[in-house]
Amino acid sequence: MEIKQNIVFVGAGSMAEAMISGMLQKELFLPRQISVMNHSNQERLKNLNKSYGVTTTQNKQEAIKNAGIIILAIKPKDVAEAVLAIKNEVNENQLIISVLAGVATTTITDLLNKEVPIVRAMPNTSATIGKSATALAVGMYANENHLMIARQLFETIGIVTTVAEKDLHAVTGLSGSGPAYVYYLVEAMEKAADDIGLEKEIAKELILQTIIGAAEMLKSSPKQPATLRKEVTSPGGTTEAGIKVLEQFNYQQAIVSCIKRATIRSAELGEAMLQTVSEGK
After folding, report:
1. What is Dmax (Cα atoms) for the chain?
2. Full-model pTM
3. Nearest 5°: CA angle at 174, between 172 and 175?
4. Which residues share a beta bridge with 71?
């Protein structure tokens, strides 16, 4: 269903492009409804205009004034500068959607000093291929309608779930950073394949299909992961031999500790960001 409002992206990075691509493919917006701005990279704006037909502008005031939805897609460290630059044009009838990791909705509200509805999103890098796992959380002044609009936007680049804002740190540690954990596993599998003498291209094809197949099994089967693992693990067989080595290296505990540490780090960065913004006001 097409959304009748104009939308402006403050920031023109890979996440902004993934969202633009998804929204246009799903016909949620027409190219003329979308404006994109960034701090100074004119070449990047030209490329987005050429690729998607969207409007690119350095006239922040005009673009913000004409938009019903504002997407904050800059780097988290630039949030104060970016929000203060558009503050005078933002009003309570607009919806702000933030994809800034670690930046609380209250931080943006404080910078604006207005009762503007804000929805915070935590997608991941798989958004670039339309396979993101995105979590949404509503700010103080956002309602169900605002959440529905945000859900529509992010469903164009993957699946969407809703959580309390306090849980977004956990989402960041789990699915926000999650793709990197999988890539790290693949790096290890590729190294192992080389050590045991498999040709690189053959190994890559086998590894990727193994991961894709396992993910599809997890998605389509009602069985728990532990059950699926045990069904592959014959007593005295090759899988059991491999699993025992993983157990010796506390593989599962390493993954648990990894996700917990990433979650804590997200909270630390959020606190540091809040402190920086407070000092700069």
Report:
1. 69
2. 0.91
3. 75
4. 9, 97
| pLDDT tens digits for range 183-218 | 999 999 999 999 999 999 999 999 999 999 999 999
Options 1.10.238.10, 2.40.240.10, 3.30.450.20, 1.10.3730.10; which CATH number does 178-260 get? Answer: 1.10.3730.10
| Cβ pair 270, 104 in contact under 8 A | yes
Name the fold adopted by 7-168: Rossmann fold (3.40.50)
Predicted pLDDT of residue 1: 59
15, 76 Cβ separation under 8 angstroms = no
The structure tokens 């309602």 sit at 143
Burial 67-84 (b: 16+ CB within 10 A, else e): bebbbbbbebeebbebbe
Band of residue 281 on the pLDDT scale cut at 50, 70, 90: low
Report the DSSP beta bridge partners of residue 37: 10
